[in-house]
Design a protein that fits this description.
two-stranded antiparallel sheet, 161 residues, Double Stranded RNA Binding Domain, 5 helices, alpha+beta
């Protein structure tokens, strides 16, 4: 069987079969025809949906050899293991802070950009990081999960104990 090389627009990506090129094009088309039946998240490729569905199964077959933390996906375990290696290959081009994971660097860079894409639905306060918004929202919930060991007083944020 002769190998057919096909280019995808300007990417110069080649495929040995036309069906592989068509599957790849879905990534760029915005079409997401595969839907997780548990959480309704959509995917452009069936294989990505199947990998995602492991999250809902509770199965975590991949284990970090250093701290025994488990993962549903091998790629997540590999990314986690960079923490233990000491490697920090991603550098913020503004302040030169380094990161072991690209996603952490991208999240950090929002601080410099002034973007605050996360909004508290109670008082409309905005945040550059989702985790900061979630911590803030504890104020509105009435929950006080942090308890001082000395006076036993409970607080909505850890920094107050």
């Amino acid at each position: 069987m002769a190998s057919v090389l096909l280019n995808v627009m300007f990417l110069k990506k080649t495929f040995s079969q036309k069906s592989n090129m068509k599957r790849h094009r879905l990534i760029h088309s915005g079409q997401r025809p595969f839907t997780c039946d548990v959480c309704r998240k959509t995917f452009s490729q069936k294989s990505n949906m199947k990998r995602h569905q492991l999250i809902h199964s509770g199965l975590r077959p991949f284990k970090c050899a250093v701290n025994r933390k488990t993962f549903s996906q091998k790629s997540n375990m590999k990314r986690h293991q960079l923490i233990h290696s000491g490697l920090r290959p991603f550098t913020c081009d503004v302040c030169r802070k380094t990161f072991s994971q690209k996603s952490n660097m991208k999240r950090h860079q929002l601080i410099h950009s002034g973007q605050r894409p996360f909004t508290c639905d109670v008082n409309r306060k905005t945040f550059s990081q989702k985790s900061n918004m979630k911590r803030h929202q504890l104020i509105h919930s009435g929950l006080r999960p942090f308890k001082c060991d000395v006076c036993k007083k409970k607080h909505s944020v850890r920094s107050l104990i």
